[in-house]
Amino acid sequence: xxxxxxxxxxxxxxxxxxxxxxxxxxxxxxxxxxxxxxxxxxxxxxxxxxxxxxxxxxxxxxxxxxxxxxxxxxxxxxxxxxxxxxxxxxxxxxxxxxxxxxxxxxxxxxxxxxxxxxxxxxxxxxxxxxxxxxxxxxxxxxxxxxxxxxxxxxxxxxxxxxxxxxxxxxxxxxxxxxxxxxxxxxxxxxxxxxxxxxxxxxxxxxxxxxxxxxxxxxxxxxxxxxxxxxxxxxxxxxxxxxxxxxxxxxxxxxxxxxxxxxx
Length: 263
Ligand code: ADP
Description:
By secondary structure, the protein is of the alpha/beta class. The protein is built from ten helices and ten strands.
């Protein structure tokens, strides 16, 4: 298939306090996300996953290398093209408070991107918000409520509804289900799978949890200390991991031995 996001030799260095040399949080990483598929980036905490996600979202500037969206280098975007990119590549973060203002009603949280982008009028936006709530399987009665009045799973559905408001092509999920109980996590992953099947969305899915990967991803990139150590289909990674590091990550999954059938 066609690549919607391509990351080429992406590198990010940070200055560390009281250190002379720069620290490479992301070191020469290259991969592509195919349209309509899910690519998971896995690795332990600190391996550089979020830094990659933030560069893909153009929230952080690479030290070197490029991120392309639909074949164009995103660092060259400005004006209309930048707005278009911001509209079509949406984040969903682990902590929905990252995207939901606790002082905003659910209605206002979901409606805000529509208002900012000048889409529709007041009346059509109410209709659209109801449609978006229905899309994430929540009743329109939650519109008048506030994030702290909802469960973690419901808040994550609201964050997804907000991300869906502008009809994105790509959703970058950074540990989007990590804070949820396994059962709720399962429901949110199913919702994301359904939305993908229905809308042809592409997901860049950041997680430290390989059990989540198995449920959602078509392909997996394994990162360690800022480097890409393995990139393969999900089945390949689970059935024939090439790197010892990937095997160690798989061993850490509860019931991982059973899933791998190696005991
Ligand atoms: P992950 O998402 O895999 O947990 P991150 O991308 O958040 O990893 O971080 C990778 C490394 O870069 C970590 O060692 C982290 O401490 C460091 N890092 C991330 N952001 C910054 C920053 N703004 N300044 C300095 N170091 C940072």
